[in-house]
């Protein structure tokens, strides 16, 4: 009789163990599936409104209004400089630079800082138009670049500058910047 009770009790424990194993397997499988969904789901951040347009960045891509605002701010920061603000100017540009291009860009900026430090040469850029291509992460700023010595304008030229960007997750970073040739700026 004792053997039969012990056998029934052992069978009861085995059934409980088997139910628990099935439940644990189901929970593990659900966790794996949920992790897969979480990793592949695109993320999105809605940015604080500074225009009438809704602006957001997602892992699926950058919206044209956001790229336009970033280009505008970067162009103004990059192309407006004076000898009094050179260190701040360089630090701010490096903050928006892609880490992969940081060293090359810093070397170019240091050259500009060394040339302008102690001089009275300043420059300002007046934007007339911005074009953006969110698919290729390329944008251009068209405008007038004015160069000053003291308070006197010594040069005023129409220029087009191209900005290259990279996106990693929800972060947009500057990878390149160049002045387009004059014939390109005349077509625009």
CATH superfamily of the largest domain: VirB8 protein
The beta-strand count equals 7
Q: Rough shape? A: elongated
CATH class category of the largest domain: Alpha Beta
As residue ranges, the low-confidence spans are: 184-188
Report strand %: 25-35%
Q: Say what the CATH topology of the largest domain is.
A: Nuclear Transport Factor 2, Chain: A
Structural class label: alpha+beta
For the biggest β-sheet, the strand order reads 4-5-6-7
Roughly what is the average pLDDT, rounded to an integer? 85
Helix content: 40-55%
**Which oligomerization state do the chains in this entry correspond to?**
single chain
Q: Could you characterize the architecture of this molecule?
A:
With 188 residues, this protein is an alpha+beta fold. It has 2 domains: 1-41; 45-187, VirB8 protein (Nuclear Transport Factor 2, Chain: A), CATH 3.10.450.230. 46% of the residues lie in helices and 31% in strands. It contains 5 helices and 7 strands; from the N terminus they run H-E-E-E-H-H-H-E-E-E-E-H. The chain has a 4-stranded antiparallel beta sheet. It has a 3-stranded antiparallel beta sheet with strand order 1-2-3. A hairpin with a 2-residue loop joins strand 6 and strand 7 (171-179). The longest helix has 39 residues, at 2-40. It is elongated.
Quickly describe the structure.
This protein has 188 residues and is of the alpha+beta class. The chain has five helices and seven strands.
Q: What keyword list fits this structure?
A:
188 residues, alpha+beta, Nuclear Transport Factor 2, Chain: A, four-stranded antiparallel beta sheet, three-stranded antiparallel beta sheet, 31% strand, elongated
